Amino acid sequence: MCVVHEFLLPSVVMLENKNRFYVYQYLRESGLPYYVGKGSNKRAWRKGKNEFKPPNDLSRIDIIIEGVTEETAFRIEKQLIQWWGRKDLGTGILSNRTDGGEGSANFSEATRQKLRDNGYKHTISEVGRKRISEAQKSRTNRVPRGALSPEEVSKLRERSVGNTFRKGATHTEEAREKIRKARAKQVHPSSGKVRTEEYKEKMRESMIKQTTFPCSYCSVVAAAGNIKRWHNDNCKNKPNMDKVA
Q: 123 falls in which pLDDT band (50, 70, 90)?
């Protein structure tokens, strides 16, 4: 059943129980409202980080109307804000920064400037930078050594031509020692086991014995899987018979 303040609307249609939306207002100690909103469930009692907080005295949370559709709640919210007026526009007593209703419209110039400033001057604090740095250092999804094909390595090398980052820089002896130890303990990306010399030798022999096939349309010679996936009928050098025709 709908509960409506007498001054609010001339008439309100009784709606079905499935309509879960309501309109609420936060009251000052004087009994006058300072914020009007629309919500469902526990919206009036729980707010986000940058939203208007409910009063400490929960008895000053006034439910204007409940059991209505969202469209009706939006309409009543908008009418109430217009009735009481907004402090930021100099038209009334409410702290609302918009006219209410669906979406956020008619921001005050001061609010617009704050949004612009926050958008253009957003900076990360030192604590945030430290967290990002630690997260990057602990990443586990880096590309393992040997995972890229020679063609992919060649493409990356071509992209880096002209890149002067760290050009001429040299590693310290301590850094070189760390690199040597890391390379000596190559770990399999899936099993996590250290690749022994015996394992590496078996892998080399397997690659040498692997049967290769040539592509019918280019000069590439590769394993059967790569030829099937990237060459022959899928080769980018295959003539387009539609254009030839």
A: low
